[in-house]
Amino acid sequence: MDFNKLLLAMGVASTIFIVGCGDDTDFSKTTQPTPEPEVTPLLQAFAPNGALKAQIRRTQYGVPHITADNLESLGFGSGYAQAQDNLCVIADGFIKANSERSMYFGPHASIDFATGLPTSEDNGNLISDFAYKALKIRALAETQYTQFSYNSRALMEGFSAGYNQFLADVEAGEQTAEPFCAGQPWVKPITGVDVANYLFSVALLPGAANFLDLIFYANPGDGEEYLPRIIGPAGSSVQTAFVSDMNRKLIARAANITTPDTNPRDLGSNGWGLGKDKTENGKGMVLGNPHFPHTGNLRFWQSHLTIPGQIDVMGGSLVGMPGLVNIGFNNDVAWTHTFSTAEHFVMYNLELMAGDRLQYMFDGEAMPITKETVSVLVNAGAAGMLVAEKDIYTTAKGPMVEAPPALAPFGWDDGQAFMIQDANMANIDPLDHWLAMNRASNLDEFQQAFKNYDGVIFNNTMYADKEGNAFYIDDSTVPGFSDFVIGILKTTPEIIAAKAQAGFTILPGNTSTFSFSEPMPYERAPKLERTDFVQNSNNSFWSTNLAEPLENFSPLYGPERAQLSLRTRMGLTLMEDAAGDDGKFSVAELESALLSNRAYLPELVLADLLSQCAEQGDTPVVVSPTLSKDLSASCAALIAWNGKQDNDSVGGALIREFAHQFDQDTMLTQAFDYTNAATTPNTLASDGSALVALAHAALNLEAAGFSVDASLGEVQFVEKSLPDGTASEVKLPWPGSHNAEGGFNVFSTSLSGDDTLIPQHRYAAVMDVLSGKAAASGLTAQGYQIRYGSSWMMTVSFTDDGPVAKGLLSYSQSSNALSPNFNDQSAFYSTQKQLRPLLFTEADIQASLESTTELSFQRND
C-alpha cells in the first residue's frame, strides 16, 4: 500500500466519507474542570493557610510511608521522598519535557560522561527539543493549568514544593544528592506547571512521542529547510565549523529515519484479577507484574500514602507521579495495569490545495498549516552556548510529520502531507483518575472513576476486591469514533491495508465525517466482570477470559480473534495449573506462579525436539554452506534443563538463544485456531528446521564464549552503573525468562531509549554467526546484561483481617549509588525466589521502622 495514494484509493468524491482532522478547534483535550466538591468534602486539597506538613517514615528497603492531612501536603512529602531516591531521573524528565536537553547536554543524546564526548553523533537531543516544541506541551501546560481540578493542582504544587525543599536541603548540607547530578545547573527548582508539563509528556509516550524524528523533519520544502539555523551569538570560525558539522550530521540522520514503532521499548506487563471462584478463601486476589525499563523516566517507585480517614494506599508508581499510587491496593480493593494494544492517536493523510503546500482541503474549504519559528539553546562546547531556531509546522489538531524521500511512506509534496492527532494531548485527567482509584472502597466506586475520567492514558486495568469481584477494562484514551466510523474502519480495504503496513491507523483528512475531539466514553470501552478471573499479558482485550471473549469493539482498541503471544499462553497455562489440585489459588500459589520462571516455548516443543535430537545423533547439522554443528552436547544440555529459567538452570542460555532463532510460522505445523487460542499453534515441524535453529543458537552462544550447558545464572546478570557510567563491582546472577521463549516473569537487555541521560554502562554486542549483526537476544561476551523487564512485582490477597500483600522492586528503590537502597532489593531478587512482605499495618511499620522525617513548609501566596 502506497500511503501517498491513500486519498485517491479511498475516492475523495465517493459516497464513503473520509476522516477529517482540520477544523479550527483547539487540539487540547476538552475535558472541563471537575466541579467542586470532587469527591467528599472531607478530603482537603490545599494546606490550610499554606502550611504544608508531611511525615516520612522509612522501613526496610527504604520504603517511605508518607502521612499528611491534605493532598498538597501529601504531594509535598511524595516530592521530597522521590527526590531523595531518584533525583537525577526526575530532573531529566523535566529537562526533556521543557526542550532543554541540548542546552545542558549538547546536541547529541549518546554521551560518554567520563570524557564528555558523544559516543554517537546522533543529534538526538536537538531533535527531541524541537519536536517537543512542535508538540507544544509546555505552552499547553501553561494555558491549561487552571483547567486542572483543585485536587490535581494541589498534588502538583505540593510535589514541586517537596522537590524544591529537597534541593534547598542539599544546598544547606542537610541532604546528599546523587553524585551524577549534584550541583548541576539542570537540577533546578520547579513549579506545578513543570509537573503538568512532565505529565503531558508521559501521556504522549504511546503516541506522538514515537514520531519525534518525523516531527523534526517535517517541512514543505524539498531540500534542507528542516535544518535549524544558528542565530546567535555572533559567529566565529569555531561556531561556523560546529554548525556545519551539526547540519551535516542532521542530514545523515534524516536519511536514516525509519517509520516509527508505536511501542519502541516493547513496554509490557502481566496482570491478574482473581475472583471468589478462583481463590481458596473466596475473596479477591491481584497479581501485578509490569515489565518496564529499569532505567530512566519509566522507573517505578514504591510508597505508602495516607491521609487519615481518607486515603490509605500502597503500591508502585512511575517516578514523577505526585502523591498517588499507579499499581497497588488499599484496605478494600487492589488493581494493576498492563500496556494496552489500543491506538491512542490517528495519522491523517491531508489533501493539499493545488499550488499551496501550506493549505489543505477540509469539507471543501482550505485550512491552514501553520508555520511557527521556535528556538532552543545548544551547548556547543568550544563554540559556547548558541541559539538555534527552526520552523515547525502544525495544524489545529496536531503536528505535521514527514519522512525523507528515500523512506517515502509519509512524504510532503504538492498533493498531500501527513499530521498526527493524539487523543492524550494535554490530558488533564490522570491525577483525578488515579486519586479516585486510590480511594475506591468497592467495585461501584472503582468503576465510577472510569466513568468520570479518561486518565488511564495507555493501560488495561485488572481489579479484584475483598468481596471476591474481578473486573477488567481497557479504558485507555482512544479516539472516540462513532459506530458508523468503526464499521468503516473494519470493512474498508484501503484503511485495513494501510494499517497492516504501517502498524497504526492512517485516515484521509479531507472531510469532517470521521473527526474526533473526545476519547471513547466508558460505555463503549471493552470491559468484563467475572467471579473467576480476568487477565492480560499485552494481547488485546479479546482474550481477557476465553470463556467469555470480548468482541465488537473499535479496532483502535486492538485485534479480535488474533493469535496470542507465547507469554499470554504461558499466563493462561499458569492460571490453570499453578493453583493446585483444587484449581483455586492460595497466597503462596499466587506468588509461586509469578516467580515460577517457566517458559511456554520449550514446554510446547522440547519433547519433540529431543526426539529429533535422538534421531540426529552426532551427525552435524548444516547451518550454512560454511557452518555445521554436532548437536550432541546441546541436546544433552536440553535434557539436563530443569524446566525453569532460574539461576541454576543448566542449558537455560541455550534455551534463550534457541527461542530467538525459532519461527512459529514455519516451525509449528498446527495453525492458529481462535476457538482454541490458548493452545494453538502447536506441533513441532519434523523437517529439521528446529535442529538448524538449535545449531544456530549453539554457535552464537559459543561465539560469546559460553558453553551450551551454561546455566542461566552464569550468563544472565544485572550490573548497576556508577555515576561516571562505569560498571559497579557487583554483578548479580539474574533469574527470569524472556518474551521470545514465552516466559511470564520476563527480562531483556533493552535500554530505555531516550528516557534518561544518566550514563548506563554497556557491553559490546556479540555478532550473530550468520547475519553478522548484533545477536537478537542482546548477548554480549559478558552475557545478558538485564536492563528491562519485571519491575514492581506485587501480589495482594484479601482476608478477614485485611489485605495481605507481598512485593518487590527488582532494581531497588533508589537510583542513587550512595544510597543503601541502591542495590538491596536487586540482591534479594538475585538470591531469593520470593517476594518480601509489604508493610501496610501500623504494627508492621513500627516493627520495621528505620527513620522518621518531619517536613514543613510555609507557602507564601
From TrEMBL:
Under the heading InterPro entries, the entry gives: Ntn_hydrolases_N, Penicillin_amidase_A-knob, Penicillin_amidase_dom1, Penicillin_amidase_N_B-knob, S45
Lineage, top-rank taxon, reads: Bacteria
UniProt keyword list: Hydrolase, Signal, Zymogen
One Pfam family hit: Penicil_amidase
The UniProt similarity line reads: Belongs to the peptidase S45 family.
From the Swiss-Prot or TrEMBL record, give the protein name.
Peptidase S45
Q: Which organism is it from?
A: Shewanella litoralis
Identify the gene encoding this protein. aaiD
